[in-house]
Amino acid sequence: MDGMIGKSSSVVSLPTDTGLRLDRLLAARLPELSRSRLKALIEEGHVTADGATITNPSQRVKPGQHFVVEPPPPIDDRPAPQAIDLDVVYEDAELIVIDKPAGLVVHPAPGNPDATLVNALLAHCGDSLAGIGGVRRPGIVHRLDKDTSGLMVVAKTGHAHAVLSKAFADRTINRAYLALVWGLPPQREGELTGSIGRSPVNRKKMAVVTRGGKSAKTHYMVERTFGTTASLVRCRLATGRTHQIRVHLTELGTPLIGDQTYGRVRRGRTQGLSESVAAELTGFPRQALHATTLGFIHPASGEMLDFKSPIPADIAHLVTLLE
After folding, report:
1. Given a cut of 60, is residue 152 above it in pLDDT?
2. How many domains does the chain have?
3. What residues contact residue 111 under an 8 Å CB cut-off, 6+ apart?
4. In the predicted model, is pLDDT for residue 262 greater than 50?
5. So what's the pLDDT on residue 77?
6. Residue 144 resides in a domain
7. Residues 65-99: pLDDT tens digits?
8. What is the predicted pLDDT for the residue at 4?
């Protein structure tokens, strides 16, 4: 029997539903949610089938399956301006380039309703930013994970938002990251591929998947090695999937130092290191990933802009320890 369980929705498939796409079934049974919204909820891991998370909207339904849709809690549509210090690398009437510190969330979301980059930008830029490209994420054309530091560009006009968004979609933005990883990649340079989607066993994680993911490509080059313990790797993105570098490097067998989600420390990683150095490496409080290069064509002038950000002090400290 269909019904509401708190804020979640429950649907049990009937024999007549056999073979239907999951998103079509849910849209028919839950008219309060659009099919596009349901498709997004499925892909984001907010739907379970008999208790198991599913992420494929086109999955075919079998009779007697119990589906539960659990949308994330709503957030305020209009983030409030908040005075938060920003490291502004460049700014003009069209856009602003920020060197984001680790620990700063880009936009409000469940669990982080305020004190985000968006809140800071609204205070810095004033009313002119409000609503550019959307109410909840004004000006945002790309994002960095909370604990990834480095360069971001934000649009300040509708024209800049449209042009920059297209440039990211067309993959004409030059982006490079420095990653401090456990171990040594098998080659000095290579290309990492594999579709990325929600992990079928943990909806809070992304993974390289065989079905339902989006194609992803990361080029890497080893810049320095520290024995067999760690490597400093430069990564360039050909696509921009959620957690792409973190997932691809983990799949390679060289997860990011400090990555609490993907970077579990294997036994023997710190062999040969002093106890104090090993403790600092294994206790590093965030993924050692920094967006060091950002280049794009200015949406108004047509000028090529290229920005560099040096490796931040906390990752530089780890490099010094490893040396």
Report:
1. yes
2. 3
3. none
4. yes
5. 66
6. yes
7. 999 999 887 655 688 999 999 999 999 999 999 99
8. 40
- Same domain as 187, residue 114: no
Residue 190 burial (10 A CB sphere; 0-12, 13-18, 19+): middle
Q: How many CB atoms lie within 10 A of CB 203?
A: 17
User: How much is the CA Rg of the chain, to the nearest whole Å?
Assistant: 22
For residue 143, what are the CA distances in angstroms to 53, 79, 109, 179? 26, 17, 13, 17
Contacts of 244 (CB under 8 A, 6+ apart): 196, 216, 218, 237
276-312 as b/e: b if 16+ CB within 10 A: eebebbeebebbbbbbbbbbbebbeeeeebebebebb
Assign 5 a pLDDT band (cuts: 50, 70, 90).
Answer: very low
Is residue 303 domain-resident? Answer: no
Q: Is the pTM of this model over 0.85?
A: no
* Cβ(293)–Cβ(308) below 8 Å: yes
Helices (H) and strands (E) in the chain, counts: 7, 16
Answer whether 274's CB lies under 8 Å from 282's CB.
no
Q: What is the dihedral of CA 26, 29, 33, 34, to 10 degrees?
A: 70
Two structure tokens written together for 40 = 């997004």
Kindly report, residue by residue over 29-42, the tens digit of the pLDDT.
998 888 888 998 99
- Domain co-membership, 193 together with 275: yes
Which residues have a catalytic role annotated? 145
Output phi, psi for 251, to 5 deg: -60, -30
User: Are residue 56 and residue 94 in the same domain, yes or no?
Assistant: no
